[in-house]
């Protein structure tokens, strides 16, 4: 789930968390059967996998 909203989500408090949760729920409810990943969210709800992406020159 292309989100990269982690820092902004934290600044907005409950409103930011609600948006992140909505995005995750919407993706999961599509029923694709594949794992979903949400970048830069350390508290993405299950079953969404949360990761922090690292960007390197040339990638």
Q: In a nutshell, what does this entry contain?
A:
The protein has two helices and two strands; from the N terminus they run ααββ. It has 59 residues and is an alpha+beta fold.
Task: Characterise the protein shown here.
InterPro entries: GH, Glycoside_Hdrlase_35. Belongs to the glycosyl hydrolase 35 family. This is Beta-galactosidase 3-like. One of its GO terms (biological process) is carbohydrate metabolic process. One of its GO terms (molecular function) is hydrolase activity, hydrolyzing O-glycosyl compounds. The protein is an alpha+beta fold. It has one domain. The chain has a two-stranded parallel ribbon with strand order 1-2. The longest helix is centred in the middle third of the chain and has 15 residues. The protein starts with 5 loop residues before the first helix and ends in an 8-residue tail after the last strand. The model has no long low-confidence stretch (mean pLDDT 78).
């Amino acid at each position: 789930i292309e989100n990269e909203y982690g820092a902004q989500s934290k600044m907005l408090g409950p409103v930011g968390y609600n948006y992140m949760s909505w995005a995750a729920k919407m993706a999961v409810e599509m029923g694709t059967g594949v794992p979903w990943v949400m970048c830069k969210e350390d508290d993405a709800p299950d079953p969404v996998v949360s990761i922090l992406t690292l960007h390197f020159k040339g990638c």
